[in-house]
Amino acid sequence: MEDAIRTVKVKLNVPTERCDDLHQTKDQFLHCANTTSEWAWRHPNDYCVTSKQKAENALYDRLRDETELTANLVQKGIRRAIEATKSGVARLEKGEKTSQPQFDAWSVVYDKRSATFHRDHVSLSTVNGRVECDYVLPDDPEDTPIGEYLLNEDYEFRMSTLQYDRSTASFYLHARMRRTTDKQDQFTTTSDDAKHRTVLGVDLNVDGSLAVTSTGAFIGNADEMNHRRREFEKTRGSMQQTRTRSAHLSIQSMNDREHRWIQDELHRASNRILDEARNHGCTHIAFENLTDIRTRMGGGKRFHAWAFRRLFEYVEYKAEMDGIEVARVSPAYTSQRCSSCGFTHEGNRRSKHQFVCQKCEYELNADYNASKNIARKLLKRLHSGQTSSSGGAPCQCALKSGTLNLNGEFHASVDSTVEGESTDKPTTSVVGH
């Protein structure tokens, strides 16, 4: 059965005290779109930019700093402008007159990352956290678009648009609904998808390698980033003591240079993580949940909290282009659990970089061990809704040279001895075959 897309307009009951949050969200969303449009539209002096990836690479960091929007809404604002730019270029190619796209109509684009859709209400991301809004439903929705599509379990929510009617001071959600197949087809599709679910785990670190994947790739250099930041801080401190305008301008220039360097390093790391995921046919990438990372690392590690969050965002929006899902899992016990036998004990972590299981004597790099546990946590979550009797075989972790099923059994595709290796140095030589 072919997909059927329907758009349903439903009025929202927005709490009075939260209306301004939605208006501010709209203002900042349109700022992202208009800033992108101004950057991308270069006619008639040059070719217009119609690549979403190029636009995001050039503008994402700036717009994240300039707004209070979530990463997903910034991304959607950029993409809205690029789509409009593409349409403009198509008109130019046909010889039609057109100009730089401008966005002033009240609208914000939401998908399942920035909104949680329910049959009777929706939770929307704003500049001030989430706001829950009930739908204003008719007394008898039968034979109406709301009853036929919005309340129909045979239809699922897709990317939708929030709009505002100034004449009535009312918010409306234009919900896009896609028809799903019947239950038998749903089961078949779920089973087929499950057979191809492969998870890449990523462990983030404040020293050593910035990121270590469950495929054994050691990515980036957190020590180098720390060193560069300390050098910047020393120079800044010396200049601040002079208290001259020249010193102030030099400090601003240094701050910009430092920021660009760090962002470039994070982009490089995110690209390598995506390369690992693509090379191993991964459908999912798992990170630790970073919500409480500042508390866990202490006040002196705030830079790392920012860097980890930004790295996650880079991977998230780039992965979407490849159809790879990015998720976060609880970090609890990922550094203490043996990824081979499952035995969990704080004594398993012999040193900062060495993990030796006290039960099965499995020995390997501690960060690599943690990355496999992170992958396994998401693996279990994905498997929880399946009914297969194969004990988890349909889902697998992306590992160095084989796969790890839900029972914790490792199956090497080439040589199982590489699993026991322990290395403290970042290296690409251990990446799987």
List the helices and strands and how they pair.
Layout: E1 5-13, H1 19-40, H2 52-66, H3 71-93, E2 107-110, E3 115-117, E4 121-126, E5 129-136, H4 145-150, E6 155-157, E7 160-165, E8 170-179, H5 183-194, E9 197-204, E10 211-213, E11 218-219, H6 222-240, H7 245-279, E12 284-288, H8 293-297, H9 302-321, E13 325-329, E14 354-356, E15 363-365, H10 366-383, E16 395-397, E17 402-404, E18 410-412
Parallel strand pairs: 9-12, 9-16, 12-13
Antiparallel strand pairs: 1-5, 1-8, 2-7, 3-4, 4-5, 6-8, 7-8, 9-10, 10-11, 14-15, 17-18
Helix pairs in contact: 1-3, 2-3, 6-7, 7-9
Any overview of this molecule?
Keywords: DNA-binding. This is Transposase, IS605 OrfB family protein. GO terms for molecular function: DNA binding. It comes from Halorubrum tebenquichense DSM 14210. With about 425 residues, this protein is α+β, with helices and mostly antiparallel strands. The protein has two domains: about 5-180, no CATH class; about 195-225 and about 260-420, Nucleotidyltransferase, domain 5 (2-Layer Sandwich), CATH 3.30.420. Helices cover about 40% and strands about 20% of the residues. The protein has ten helices and 18 strands. The protein has helices spanning about 20-40, 50-65, 70-95, 145-150, 185-195, 220-240, 245-280, 295, 300-320, 365-385; strands at about 5-15, 105-110, 115, 120-125, 130-135, 155, 160-165, 170-180, 195-205, 210-215, 220, 285-290, 325-330, 355, 365, 395, 400-405, 410. The strands form four sheets. Strands 1, 2, 3, 4, 5, 6, 7 and 8 form an eight-stranded antiparallel β-sheet that branches. Strands 9, 10, 11, 12, 13 and 16 form a six-stranded mixed β-sheet that branches. Strand 4 and strand 5 (about 130-135) form a beta hairpin. The radius of gyration is 25 Å and the shape is globular. It starts with a strand and ends in a 21-residue tail after the last strand. Mean pLDDT is about 80; it is low at about 180-195, about 385-395 and about 410-433.
